[in-house]
Write a structure and sequence with these properties.
single chain; alpha/beta; 7-stranded parallel β-sheet; 13% strand; binds NADPH dihydro-nicotinamide-adenine-dinucleotide phosphate
Length: 272
């Protein structure tokens, strides 16, 4: 099978952990030049060093995606080091867990700042290079970006906002050969639930779900790579995502009840 990531310059935000880290290792092993961004500099340096030690090409750059200037620097690092950008993966993200009744509004602002504005900021500075390379933008959304997930208002809203932004960008660039893909993982074992914000904005520090029964970040990384290769618009990963996408078209009220039921079953669910 043709490996379209070979010699491509792939910028990955949120590369210090979970799905982003798995993409960094996999895509570097497939011959890509990976440019890794996140706030945890030490973790990034370890990952980039490990990739280079295995013969791969990697550079890292500290970036808080809520800061446009730091996003510009991430993209410029890619251009200075590897000469351009072929793929931008907007993966950096945070989650939350609280009912809207209880949540501080700051929590929702924070979700939008990282998940939505982080995506916009990186796209803004990468776009000219991606137009030149006729490359790909990948937004790592979620099943919560396909249908509202109770207890995650800010999270679902931020992922829907990403979709609105990215779809529009795709259409604006229809004649410029830009590929835009929205990828929707289901539950994936990572740090995201430990770091998720609670009603008062503090981190949850634990996971309410069985992480051993989820997809692995490596599986997600492989599916995203296939989606990029096929230049897909929407990348669904597993049964939950496919079912959500399908059932929403024909029985959205049924899907509401299913989502409520599933999330109410979580230990300490705010829905109880
Ligand atoms: P992790 O918590 O393991 O990783 C999140 C990454 O985002 C980290 O590298 C973190 O790095 C980075 N990040 C967070 N805030 C910022 C910021 N302000 N600026 C730059 N980087 C930031 O979670 P996942 O790997 O699971 O999450 C990756 C993406 O996948 C997210 O967009 C998430 O919404 C999505 N997703 C995850 C699912 C899951 O069940 N795991 C399911 C569906 C979607 P650092 O703290 O060093 O900045």
């Amino acid at each position: 099978m043709k490996n379209t990531l070979e010699n491509k310059v792939v910028v990955i935000t949120g590369a210090s952990s979970g799905i982003g880290e798995a993409m960094a290792f996999l895509y570097a092993a497939q011959g890509a030049c990976v440019v890794l961004g996140a706030r945890s500099t030490e973790k990034l340096q370890l990952i980039a060093g490990d990739i280079r030690a295995k013969g791969g090409r990697a550079v890292c750059c500290r970036v808080d995606v809520t800061d446009p200037a730091e996003c510009r620097e991430l993209i410029e690092t890619a251009v200075r080091t590897f000469g351009g950008v072929d793929v931008l993966i907007c993966n950096a993200g945070i989650s939350m867990r609280a009912l809207f009744d209880d949540v501080e509004l700051d929590v929702l602002h924070r979700l939008m700042d990282v998940n939505f504005w982080g995506t916009v900021n990186c796209c803004k500075y990468a776009l000219p290079y991606l137009q030149a390379s006729r490359g790909s933008i990948v937004g790592i959304s979620s099943v919560a970006g396909l249908h509202g997930l109770p207890g995650r208002t800010g999270y679902s809203a931020s992922k829907y906002a990403m979709t609105g932004f990215l779809e529009t960008l795709r259409i604006e660039n229809l004649k410029k050969g830009l590929h835009v893909m929205i990828a929707c993982p289901g539950f994936t074992a990572s740090n995201v639930r430990f770091a998720a914000l609670t009603a008062d904005g503090t981190q949850q520090g634990e996971t309410p779900r069985d992480e051993a029964k989820m997809m692995t970040p490596e599986q997600v990384a492989r599916i995203v790579a296939r989606g990029i290769r096929r230049r897909k618009r929407l990348c669904l990963m597993e049964a939950e995502g496919r079912a959500t996408h399908f059932v929403k078209k024909f029985a959205p009220a049924f899907l509401d009840r299913m989502f409520y039921m599933v999330m109410a079953r979580e230990p300490d669910s705010p829905l109880k």
